[in-house]
Design brief:
Helix content is about 55%, strand content about 10%. It is of the alpha+beta class and about 80 residues long.
Length: about 80
Amino acid sequence: MITIDSDPKINPIFIGARILVKLSESDYTQVAIEDLYEDIKYEFETSYEVFTYSLDWLYIIGAVDLNENGFIEYATDKVDSL
């Protein structure tokens, strides 16, 4: 079970928030999953499994998309239009 007071290194919600920050600060509209993982791993020393849980959560809530080239995109346009 994930709780608010759990360690950020294993909390997909907290890591998902950092992923969104990294995407919003980026000069690019898309990023490779491996590059994004390296950034998050460097910051949190988290496992790839927790990183993918974070991406799953972000996809489910409509914050990110996976494009046809296999890159992660920040889905602000789709969220803003709802």
